TrEMBL record:
One of its GO terms (molecular function) is metal ion binding. This is Threonine dehydrogenase-like Zn-dependent dehydrogenase. The keyword Metal-binding applies. Its cofactor is Zn(2+). Belongs to the zinc-containing alcohol dehydrogenase family. It holds the Pfam family ADH_N. Residues 10-336 form the Enoyl reductase (ER) domain. Keywords: Metal-binding, Oxidoreductase, Zinc. It comes from the Bacteria.
Length: 350
């Protein structure tokens, strides 16, 4: 089979490898669609971000099938003891489980075939496309963020940043019970899509102060919940900690701010704003099996729509480097979701 093998930072090669066999409790899958995450691309280029020490250790051990934790697949063989899946099932994956992180601690899905723990995967209903299935992993963080925020019908939730995570949080917050959802972004087409996907109001941060706009929309009270999805390295065109400062200043006293963006090991929190106004900062909840299955259910019944976010699917495993470039420069290419690669087609089963 063909698989992308990472030999060093910035050095990934498409090579022939022996197809893997599943050990007990694991399954072998044919990968259908995969997509790179921004974090994976930054790690591949040697930047310090989440998982840097793991990747550095793996590279010291020699070339390996690194990265590829966002994918959909079809089960082709079962290891001993597998009971919840069967051959022919289409599945989505969560990024990690007790045995480690996919593509970090063991080979990922930038290959024609892979082996993964049964507990990592959940069956995809027919209503969820292969492309949407590949985006489920990122969506699980959004559902876990909404779970942590626990918005209520009498509350206003604000989402800062309209990338894939922002759109996921927008829809998950609505599904979790937020009475009003406000989307903050900088691209007109993204703001229009936010309205189509359930936002009650949008704020164009390229032409107005988002803090003042949110304060005005809430009658001067501020937001009850803020999902911060825009921060990250300024060198990569992201907002640094500017949007975290905005999140604190547009929130009411004792509000909840949920951080989804990642700005390295030393992200700066505007401590005074949080401390003296008793604003609570939290990360998404720990992803349980129940939240993973709830994410699939939300995508299945249409309460969270993923397909409208997918703007580019490239045919062929060999086009992964192109997907990396498109994903790293999503704004320039007008993309919301990472660029995907179609590796194979599902086989119909009876």
């Amino acid at each position: 089979m063909k698989a992308w093998i990472t030999h060093g930072y910035g050095d990934m090669r498409l090579e022939e490898r022996d197809p893997p066999d599943p050990k007990p409790g694991w399954v072998k899958v044919k990968v259908l669609v995969a997509q790179p995450s921004i974090t994976e691309i930054l790690l591949f280029e040697g930047e310090r971000t989440y998982g840097h020490e793991i990747i550095a250790r793996r590279l010291r051990e020699g070339p390996g099938a690194l990265f590829g934790h966002e994918f959909s697949a079809q089960v082709v063989a079962l290891g001993e003891g597998v009971t919840t899946l069967k051959a022919g099932d289409r599945v989505a994956a969560r990024g990690s489980h007790p045995e480690g992180i996919v593509g970090f601690d063991y080979p990922g899905a930038f290959a024609e075939f892979g082996v993964f723990p049964e507990s990592l995967l959940a069956p995809l209903p027919p209503s969820v496309s292969d492309s949407a299935g590949a985006a489920i992993q990122a969506l699980t963080d959004c559902v876990a963020a909404a779970h942590a925020a626990a918005p209520r019908l009498d509350e206003t939730a604000v989402v800062i940043g309209l990338g894939a995570m922002g759109f996921g949080c927008l829809q998950a917050a609505r599904a979790a019970g937020a009475g009003r959802v406000v989307a903050v972004g900088r691209r007109r087409e993204a703001l229009d899509l936010a309205l189509a996907l359930g936002a009650d109001d949008v704020v164009d941060a390229s032409s107005e102060d988002p803090v003042e706009a949110v304060r005005k929309l809430t009658g001067g009270n501020g937001a009850d919940v803020v999902f911060e999805c825009a921060g990250g390295p300024v060198s990569r065109g992201l907002a640094g900690n500017t949007t975290m400062i905005q999140a604190a200043r547009m929130a009411r006293d004792e509000a909840r701010v949920i951080g989804l963006a990642f700005d390295g090991d030393a992200a700066v929190l505007p401590y005074a704003d949080f401390r003296f106004r008793s604003i609570r900062f939290a990360f998404p909840s720990v992803l349980t099996r129940a939240l993973f299955e709830r994410t699939v259910a939300l995508a299945s019944d249409g309460r969270v729509r993923v397909d409208p976010l997918i703007g580019c699917t490239l045919d062929g495993l060999e086009r992964l480097p192109e997907a990396f470039d498109l994903t790293l420069n999503k704004s320039r290419h007008g993309l919301i979701n990472p660029a995907q690669i179609r590796i194979s087609q599902a086989t119909e089963t009876t």
